[in-house]
Amino acid sequence: MLSRTKQYLRKNGYFYKKEYIRPLLTPDNIYIFRFGRDRLDNRLIIRYSHKWTGRQRINEIDLRLHKQKHPRIFENESELLQYLEGHLLKHEAKVRAREDKDSKQHQVPDGASK
Which segments carry the region annotation Disordered (predicted)? Predict the structure, then answer.
């Protein structure tokens, strides 16, 4: 499932971990991919069901980059890959810049007394 997405993540240096959830009250099955370069803080939630022939049918793909509150929702894998190619590297750069800025604010300047 989502083989092109896995190839894209590996090619760009991301690690991922896959989990399977079978909810009791809904007929959907759920895979959760956590991925990231340093920490696994991005999340893909894939809700899928089975056709009468036994093939898997993706109902919905939710993408949450860096623990977003409101996910991006995609219908299929090609829409997801278009979004990832356009936004993932930009979003990573923005988050790293914000982390660098925060770490510089918390540093004590040289020669300062404590």
Answer: 95-114
